[in-house]
Amino acid sequence: MAEQYKSLHPVKYYRDYLSHNIRPDGRVFDTFRPVILNTGSIDTADGSALSKLGQTTVVCGIKAELCKPKAESPNKGFVVPNLDLPPLCSPKFRPGPPSDQAQVLSQLINDIIENSQCIDLTDLCIFPDKLAWCLYIDFICLDFDGSVVDACIIALVGALKTVKLPFVDYDAALDNIQVNLENTRPLPVHSIPVSTTFAIFDDKIILADPTVEEENLCTGIIVIVLKDDELCCVHKPGGSPLSSDELLGCIEKSKKKVPLMRDLLKTALQDVG
Amino acid sequence: MSNIRKTIVSNCEKTFLLKNLAEFNRLDGRAFDEFRKVEIEFGSDWGCCFVSLGKTKVIAQVSCEIQQPKSSRPGEGILNLNVELNPIAAPHFEADRQSNEQVQLNRLLEKCLKDSKAIDLESLCIKNNEKVWAIRVDINVLNHEGNILDCASIAALAALAHFRRPDVTCDGEEFVIHSIKQKDPIPMVIHHYPVCITYSVFNSGLYILADPTLLEENVADAFLSIGLNAYKELCGLHLGGKADLSPEIIIQTANKAAARASSVVQQIKDAIEQNNEIRREQKDGFCRLANKRDPVELVEELSVYLDQWSTKKKKNKRKSKEPKDEQIEQEVKEPDITADIKPLVAGTAVLVPKENDDGDAIKVWDTSESEDDAVEFVELPHPKVETVDIADTDSEEEAVIVLNADQKTKKRKKRLT
Amino acid sequence: MDDEPLICLPGQRLCLCDKTYTSGQGTYERQGYIYSQLAGYVDIVEKDGVKIVEVHSSGEQTVVPAQGDIVTAQISIITQAYAKCFIKCVGDTVLRRPFRAIIRKEDVRATEKDRVEIYKSFRPGDIVLGRVLPITEAHVYQLTTAENELGVVIAHSERGHPMVPISWTEMQCSKTFIKEQRKVAKVLPEKISKDFMQSSK
Amino acid sequence: MPIDHKRINGPEDTLPYQLFTKLNRKSLEQKYKELVQDGKRHDSRAPLEHRKIFMKTGVVSQAKGSAYIEVEKTKVMVSVFDPREIPNRQDYSLKGEIYCEFKFAPFSCEKRRLHQLDAEEKQYSQIMKKALEATVCRHEFPNFQVDIYALVLHNDGSALSAAITAAGLALSHAGVPMYDLITSATLGIQKDTILIDPTTIEERICRTPFWKEKEDNEHGLVVLSMLHTHNQVAQFYQSGSISLDKLPHLIETLEKACADTIPVIQQCLVKHVIKTIKKSSNVIEV
Amino acid sequence: MEATKYRCNLDILSRPDGSVLFCEGKTTVIAGLYGPVEVKIQKAHIDKATVDCHYRPKSGLPGVEDRLYESFIRNTCETSLVAALFPRSAVLIMLQEMQNDKQLISCAVNAACMACLSSGIDMKFMFGAVTAFLTKDEELVLTPPIIDKDIKALFVIVFESTEGRILACHTEGCFSKEQFNQAVSICEAQCINVFKFFKQTLLDNK
């Protein structure tokens, strides 16, 4: 009977739960779902990681290719992140070109990578104006159950930490490229961004790390990204208005997540060695 | 799907318009060969201009980047034109979707500006076969009140004339792009200034209206668009629709368009001149538009137009108030266009039945498409050089690379995790 | 259910198909044998001396509405001739994806069919119980509410408050007490009504 | 390549770095010789030995049914969704339709894959569809369509077989009525060497015609899918050139490989059924 | 601190139901609104209007970046419009970049609000946006620094007019929580001017 009730009147179903200060999946408002991070399991990619946030699953694979830097910035490489929300991960999505949602999230992730400065593009330059690395960072959502950006950012950091780039010898005079596979170096990762999604329910209740159902029913979403003690993204695209205190409260809550994520990453990478 | 939110022209609007035309009146009070007022404003960026033709409004922006030249034209820069029919201009336009209308507009503009060799592409070459400037003109239509083509062509030309690209110097091997602050940017080299002049054709050329409004465009049988520069050289001529026009009419109309073209070109040149002077003092660009109140802009009511209409009529002649069959002939000689046309079509045009179905704009466009073959080309003043499609050669090169890639990766050693 | 349910997998041969055993739900018959179609457990139902072998899927079943099923649907669009709706549940099974259906004007109620007005029977957003009619047109399911037990079960007034049925043609807003016309279903399952009355407070 | 305005684009042309590595240029002959040495392949399997298979159901919570298969490094995810109305369909079809999409993740192969489906992926989608049509009771959902999506996360050979096997499992997990369990296996052949379940490297060697001029230039890949109980072939795909005389032997080998996979699927499904029965009985008890 | 100058020209376009040319400093955007109009069946909601936003850069085709702006403005407008009044219809909000001097997003949001106001569509509240810049010297300013490299972070904060709560927020770059807090308060103060300007413009246009 509960199933039908949920299907026919989902908002009321949720309100009933939330009025008892609990969410249908048993969490209280502020708790996050368990996080699993697995790194380096795809060896066709130059760096890879799989993250699970409750049911939400995202796999991130990084492929490095060689290219010519832009004339305007001859000493910079490229980072090309894209999030794919394939029809595999949820019945909401149809085959075909990326949906608006996928595009918006791709850009948000791109902004986060840029703002957090976790990758220094000059590290990717091999020879100014001639040769640079282009990192294709592809995120594929395997299970779409809310807070996808959070899962992407975890997977991103995990994947970046496993990237190993081969040494490249470039002979400018002959325009000759020689790649040495035996000799690799890890990519310097300058910061660890940690993202937290919040959902505003009924204009007042703030739920951390929402599931997809909560995201569908809520009246607003906030994404906060921190790197160390600094903020690098406070993204609230419309939705229920909040007072500045409430917003700062969210920032405070997401701060608590930073050391946890850092430890998780450390443990995950230890095993890889 | 494209019919969603489409405004339909009602039969009574149509008949009203045609009846008025029979009395040689246009609904906005203009004479048949009168154009709407052109206004040109420039933004603070180089190559950005906002043009209004009456209430039709368009914004054009020129941008440039360095690219590899096409292998068939190693010593020439690249010029791309792109017209966008945004939903802001009319609710039935769809974003991110190429409509037939859009493709046609783009092609007509290309014919006028690109194929006529108005822009000196050779001056855009930086290093033969390696680096050239690719110039892109984006024309966003903001308000569709008829005759987008003319408005867009004026905007594109004005923007190109206004545009300046950053200077590039070469010290042996390295190319340095100087920012606008470091070195004065360089204006484009323009050989001649071609613009499009469009006419709507009613009743097989019985009435030919210059610069049609939206309603006139939708009701018209056909449209005749003439690309011309100030030297009366033809740069593309297109007749779309289903009117059987005699060649003489086309030539006569083209002659009249030539006068218009030179005045428009002069206006563009004046506007650029004026802008260059303003730029020295202030760089506000479009902000000037914000406080500008054009009295004509606010004229909305039909009654106001009708006032204008009657004053125009007074100027013409009192006689027109008693429309009699014989009198029309006399009256006809008053405005010079109709006088031109009349003797040619007399006899044939009178009984042509007008289309009474709801053939709206789309229909007009569609038919014009299907009749593309029948489009008459008048020889261009400049020899037309055949553009060789280099796509084939390009893709071959690519294919080679890919093949290599496959074979080499085969020999790649397997990497360990 | 037995203590140890008999688990079977698709394509598993269950038994001979003869006078005593026939193939039922979740099974198929081929060359004299009954095979399972699903991964689940076997159930044998006796009816008129014939044992019907059925296989029930362990998880949610894949169901599509069939003729005669009672379904729960939400009205989406109303016109003069019919109401469009989405089937959300078939029987007790909640669908993950809704199916489109229509209720034609003549299928709204059993009596005085010619005086039915759609807008006096359903409004967009209403939840109705309906029975699936034989499929005639290729695409859309047709529903009927021409039974006492069928019709609107949950509705909100124009103000957005839940309404309570007061007769078989009227419902009343719980806040504003304004009456609105509906084709009301007679029997409300106890639990649903209780749940809703509670939640609306 | 035209710029995709719905994705973030990189620079115009980028090249995989693998192109510029110091390659130890082995002759084809040598490569072929190294394929099997002392009766062992490079990963120390016997030629007719299948790699270990790991399978799991219920990996995608949003899907009706899903399965994940790992054949050592090859990793494939498949999800199946409830029947839905066939979009833009005018006529009535008595049998339901199956829609299959087979996709390689951009980073799943040595060379980066593009986001749009390429010809190979489209072909594999079709093969998968044909294979699964044989096992799904399509008459049970007339006029509807069941969507099946397969995503290869990591391709180390035999990805198509893995996808078909996983799709069969996912369909069964989704509770879609099926005639039988389906399994699939791949085989590569080069001259006299027959390799079951080839890896990417082996696949590539088997795909190339080495000795064009000679007569016995047999090479190629064969994919076979079998229905278990009825022992019927659901799909057969062959590429390259293989003599007709050899075919029965190859099919026999593949049939055996298919049959070997069945217990894994059975185990996985039974586990799933027991779990759900327990769960539902728990609920009832409570 | 020099106050940002707001200027606008209402009803600059004849086709849309409401339109405006809005200048914030030197940044200029044209906004137009159609609505409620017919909606595509796939996009229709049974209980509210579908709000659609199209943003057009002045050069090049709109890319993924512009989609983020679109969703930002779309969600902001959807919250403030009384969408429930027009079920199964669409409200289209179109924005055209005219001139960009680093305040593009806030200018576009303000233009969208003015377009809504000028079309006369029902709104729950007005919304106004302010851009604040954090310079390399850790100073918060409202006028855009001339050199791009001087900007360490950028904040676009959208407020609603009734209680002054934060409706939307977009940031670029890195900053501390205190700086964010400070940015919110200076934007809040500036936003009062934005609302004043809206009201004055509407009064002048009577």
From TrEMBL, chain B:
Keywords: Cytoplasm, Exosome, Nucleus, RNA-binding, rRNA processing. One of its GO terms (cellular component) is nuclear exosome (RNase complex). InterPro entries: ExoRNase_PH_dom1, ExoRNase_PH_dom2, ExoRNase_PH_dom2_sf, Exosome_comp_Rrp42_subfam, PNPase/RNase_PH_dom_sf, Ribosomal_Su5_D2-typ_SF, Rrp45. GO terms for biological process: exonucleolytic trimming to generate mature 3'-end of 5.8S rRNA from tricistronic rRNA transcript (SSU-rRNA, 5.8S rRNA, LSU-rRNA); nuclear mRNA surveillance; nuclear polyadenylation-dependent rRNA catabolic process; rRNA catabolic process; TRAMP-dependent tRNA surveillance pathway; U1 snRNA 3'-end processing; U4 snRNA 3'-end processing; U5 snRNA 3'-end processing. The keyword 4Fe-4S does not apply. Residues 313-334 are annotated as: Disordered. It is found in: Cytoplasm; Nucleus, Nucleolus. Residues 34-166, 192-253 form the Exoribonuclease phosphorolytic domain. Residues 322-334 have a biased composition (Basic and acidic residues). GO terms for molecular function: mRNA 3'-UTR AU-rich region binding. Belongs to the RNase PH family. This is Exosome complex component RRP45. It comes from Acanthoscelides obtectus (Bean weevil). The lineage of its organism: Eukaryota, Metazoa, Ecdysozoa, Arthropoda, Hexapoda.
UniProtKB/TrEMBL annotation, chain C:
This is Exosome complex component CSL4. Keywords: Cytoplasm, Exosome. GO terms for molecular function: RNA binding. It comes from Acanthoscelides obtectus (Bean weevil). It is found in: Nucleus, Nucleolus. Residues 97-133 form the Exosome complex component CSL4 C-terminal domain. It comes from the Eukaryota. One of its GO terms (cellular component) is nuclear exosome (RNase complex). Residues 7-45 form the Exosome complex component N-terminal domain. Gene3D superfamilies: 2.40.50.100, Nucleic acid-binding proteins. GO terms for biological process: RNA processing. SUPFAM superfamilies: Nucleic acid-binding proteins, Ribosomal L27 protein-like.
Automatic annotation (TrEMBL), chain D:
The keyword S-adenosyl-L-methionine does not apply. Keywords: Cytoplasm, Exosome, Nucleus, RNA-binding, rRNA processing. Its main location: cytoplasm. It is found in: Cytoplasm; Nucleus. GO terms for biological process: nuclear mRNA surveillance; poly(A)-dependent snoRNA 3'-end processing; rRNA catabolic process; rRNA processing; U4 snRNA 3'-end processing. Residues 49-177 form the Exoribonuclease phosphorolytic domain. It holds the Pfam family RNase_PH. One of its GO terms (molecular function) is RNA binding. GO terms for cellular component: cytoplasmic exosome (RNase complex); nuclear exosome (RNase complex); nucleolus. It comes from the Eukaryota. Belongs to the RNase PH family. This is Exoribonuclease phosphorolytic domain-containing protein. It comes from Acanthoscelides obtectus (Bean weevil). The lineage of its organism: Eukaryota, Metazoa, Ecdysozoa, Arthropoda, Hexapoda.
Automatic annotation (TrEMBL), chain E:
Residues 6-121 form the Exoribonuclease phosphorolytic domain. The keyword Nucleus applies. GO terms for biological process: nuclear mRNA surveillance; poly(A)-dependent snoRNA 3'-end processing; rRNA catabolic process; rRNA processing; U4 snRNA 3'-end processing. Pfam families: RNase_PH. InterPro entries: ExoRNase_PH_dom1, ExoRNase_PH_dom2_sf, PNPase/RNase_PH_dom_sf, Ribosomal_Su5_D2-typ_SF, RNase_PH. One of its GO terms (molecular function) is RNA binding. Its main location: nucleus. It is found in: Nucleus. SUPFAM superfamilies: Ribonuclease PH domain 2-like, Ribosomal protein S5 domain 2-like. Keywords: Exosome, Nucleus, rRNA processing. Belongs to the RNase PH family. This is Exoribonuclease phosphorolytic domain-containing protein.
